[in-house]
Every structure is written in structure tokens, then in C-alpha cells.
Write a structure and sequence with these properties.
It is a single chain. This protein is α+β, with helices and mostly antiparallel strands. Helices cover about 20% and strands about 20% of the residues. It has a domain of about 70 residues: 2,3-Dihydroxybiphenyl 1,2-Dioxygenase, domain 1 (Roll). The protein is built from 2 helices and 6 strands, in the order αβββαβββ.
Length: about 110
Amino acid sequence: MRRASATALAADGIQKVDDSGARRPGLIRGLDFHELEGAIALQHFAFLIDEDTFDDVFGRIRARGLQYWADPGRTKAGELYQHNGGRGAYFQDPDGHLLEIMTRRYGSGEPG
């Protein structure tokens, strides 16, 4: 993932989630990445964020003119999804990885 992609996500309010699904205090101000030679399999990265941060990040996506979708299959262009009482969107980084921002955890029906 390139640094340019990370800037759309680098906002206050993004919390780290550990392997157990528990949220840990802290902010993500950027993303670390490793440069490799050759092809890398495309990945999906999901970011659980609060409503205000979603508005901020989604505003940067729109301001940069990035395409976004309501579904991972990229058939619902220019739309947000509404699941579990929250909203979300998918967009691609310059390398084609699928990034997702969402305000509710998958299947929760409750705040993240």
C-alpha cells in the first residue's frame, strides 16, 4: 500500500483492534508498509471508525475524486452501504488493494 493511500485514512479517532476484536486506545496516524519486488496478492483492509471520523475520511475520498462502492464486488459505484446500524464504503489504493471504512463491526447491529 502506498503512502498516498494512507493519507485518506490518517485521521484522529481511528482505533486499533487486536486479534480478539477488542479495541485498544490509540490513533492510527499512518500505515506501515514494506516495499517488495514482484507481484503481491491483492488484499482487503477494513477500518472500523466512528461516525465523525467516517465523515472526515469519506470527505477526503470525495475531495480526491476517488471511486468508491457500497460492495466489495464494486457493482454499486458512488454509493455507501448501510449495515448493522452503520455505514461504510469500499475504495482502492493505487496498487488495487480494496480498502473499507465502516462505522459498525460486521454482524454487530450495535456501535463498533
